[in-house]
Amino acid sequence: MADRSGECENQNRVGFHMMGMPVPASLKRPGVMSTAELAAWAQVGKNMVPKLARRFGFRELTGNAKHRRYSVHDVLKKVLGVTPQTPEDLERLLIPLQKASWVSQMTGLSVSAISAGACEKRGVLPSPIELTVTGQDQAPARGRRWIPAQIEAHLRGDPIPFLAPQTPDRKAPLKGAQEPACNVFAAICGANAEEALQLQP
After folding, report:
1. What phi, psi does 146 have (nearest 5°)?
2. Helix (H, G, I), strand (E, B), or coil: what is residue 29?
3. Alpha helix stretches (DSSP H) within 109-201
4. Which of 62, 87, 162, 171 gets the most CB atoms within 10 Å of its CB?
């Protein structure tokens, strides 16, 4: 009997595209992202690109303030923490990053459940990329993006690709370290408990 594993894999890929799997970004210049192309890939407005460039330290190539250009490999390495090793890897990583609403459509989980799981680091999904700085006094959810190839692999039960190495800024916080108050109810309970302790004789 002929081996049809390759055929099945192709059918699975087609199925994911039919479900709403985005297609890779088309770049006018291979290896270079314009401001507009970077904004489209990161799913942000063009006015956010300078902030991203400062946050991640992108190396500018050429262009004026409105038409700056950036190295694709530099962007991928600094945002995702990985470097594509093959043209196929590059194609998959050039699929635009996606928001929680798209992840919800693909997984059937609610946006609130996805956001809470990511915020509290207890979700079953691959971790998102934090495009904006998060903290106790900052809105965390708007800057979260997911790598589509990782969500695709998760749904198939395949090993998660493109996992960034655990660098100090990507590691989970140490036990006892104060974490951002992402869960409103947890924050209220914590405040009430602290107040109760202060009221004890």
Report:
1. -115, 150
2. strand
3. 111-119, 148-156, 184-199
4. 162
